[in-house]
């Protein structure tokens, strides 16, 4: 299975990383990246484990609240 990022989603992801580096630390940004990578791996293995969003064929996953 291939995970495709929308332009908006990828920009939000990068902005979250930039925010973490500015406000917290590079280590917290790396932890966030690792958590996202883990979720993506799980999504590839079992997409049905994540709820559908309001958009056709798109799944939702919360990395951190």
UniProtKB/TrEMBL annotation:
Organism domain of life: Bacteria
InterPro entries associated with the record: RelE/ParE_toxin_dom_sf
The protein's name: Plasmid stabilization protein
Organism encoding this protein: Roseivirga seohaensis
Species lineage: Bacteria, Pseudomonadati, Bacteroidota, Cytophagia, Cytophagales
């Amino acid at each position: 299975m291939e995970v495709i990022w929308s332009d908006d989603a990828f920009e939000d992801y990068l902005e979250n990383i930039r925010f973490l580096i500015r406000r917290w630390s590079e280590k917290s940004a790396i932890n966030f990246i690792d958590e996202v990578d883990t979720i993506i791996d799980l999504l590839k293995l079992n997409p049905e484990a994540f709820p559908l969003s309001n958009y056709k064929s798109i799944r939702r996953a919360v990395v951190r609240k």
